[in-house]
Amino acid sequence: MNESSTADESRGPRTTRQWVILAVAALVLAALCLVAGRWQWNRYETREAEINLIEANWSAPAVPLGEVLDGPGAVLPTSEVWRPVELEGHYVTDATVLLRNRPVAGRNGYHVLVPFETQVDGQDVVIVINRGTVPLGRDAQGPDAVPAPPSGTVTVVASLRADEPASDRGTPPGQVQAISTAQVLAAGPEGAAWAAGRTVGAYGALRTEEPAPDVELATLPKPDTDPGSHLSYAFQWCIFALGAIGGYILLWRRERGALRGETVSAGDLLLASADADDAAGVRARRQPRDRRPTPEDEEDALIEAQLH
Predict the structure, then answer these.
(1) Which of 169, 241, 249, 306 holds its CA 20 to 30 A away from the CA of 288?
(2) Is the distance from CB of 185 to CB of 195 less than 8 angstroms?
């Protein structure tokens, strides 16, 4: 008999109350696992919808800005995120602001945000353009230099992004922690008053500009379409839930079997057959009286005593 069998016998069978407590614990554990699995499934569905939107809009042909945003005060619809639009106008270079703490491809640097003046159906519109990134400077408080955008009339193709929530974190002058149009304009040297009543609830991630600038910035990467591990995690939590219920059932069946005396192994049952008994009897008759019993003989004797 092994140690676990001895411990079970000394403890005795579990009471009904104990079985009920174990059942409730197994059900609660299974329920928590299912809740976690459902949460991961929801995240998977949300991410899948984002990927489908990116794939549909990113490769779409560029359209005039007025087809997506009809004028000042317009807010970008969720279905139009990443939609490429074409704008013609000019950069307000003096209002350039830097976005900090937003690494790209694992590299630290600053995003260069420049307001862009254009027109939509005869109305003046100001939209912030993220032109790309510049590396950290020698003192890490800002870049060593910020290349200027093209001057004069410029044709820009940019992917539209929804305004980010404003950040309440402090920054050095001329820098922001989020691409919120109001916050970006307010961080400029002249503040946001010059663009009052002409902004939209979106910004553009630059794709191309014509004419090209004298010094190009590091381009922004394509949007991430990695689905992540949410689906596999959802399945794992479901397996954990089944394991909690299955563990309870297995424990119940093992104890029920123990109460019926079903504690022998498959090998013990083979030894209990008639042929095994006869073979054991022949071995016993052939054993010399003066020979000491071997460990195998002692094990056979112990098994026979348990069975009879």
Answers:
(1) 306
(2) yes
